[in-house]
Design a protein that fits this description.
The protein has helices at about 5-35, 35-50, 55-80, 95-100. The protein is an all-alpha fold. It comes from Streptomyces coeruleofuscus.
């Protein structure tokens, strides 16, 4: 496939990549210089152990990722799924405004006449 990116754009991308790489190297050097010697030594031992035991480390990481996916799937499955909304008792906003003008509570009459608990509001 032929690259259709204009030359100035490619040159700018290469320059930006080099700048980011240079900044990353600089930050790594600063971190290495400011880290205490015991910490650097422990990190070096950890890296050597990881390189020597790559297969067990990768299998443990894979098992951990699989466990996290299973936990997430079970958590989402156990949640209650909302059903469709029922239209029982739906009234217009004008109906509610008229009741409120009369000093009545629309929530006590939303289902109709059978929901009235009494006239003493």
């Amino acid at each position: 496939m032929q690259d259709k990116t204009p030359e100035p754009v490619r040159a700018k991308a290469v320059a930006a990549t080099e700048q980011v790489r240079h900044q990353a190297v600089h930050i790594a050097e600063l971190a290495r210089d400011k880290a205490p010697a015991p910490g650097r030594e422990k990190a070096g031992h950890g890296m050597q152990a990881a390189r020597a035991n790559r297969t067990p480390l990768l299998s443990a990481a894979g098992a951990l990722i699989a466990l996290l996916f299973i936990r997430r799937a079970r958590r989402h499955r156990s949640r209650a799924m909302p059903g469709p909304a029922k239209l029982q008792g739906v009234q217009s906003i004008l109906w509610a405004a008229e009741l409120m003008e009369q000093g009545l509570n629309p929530a006590r009459r939303i289902k109709g006449g059978d929901a009235l608990l009494g006239e003493g509001e």
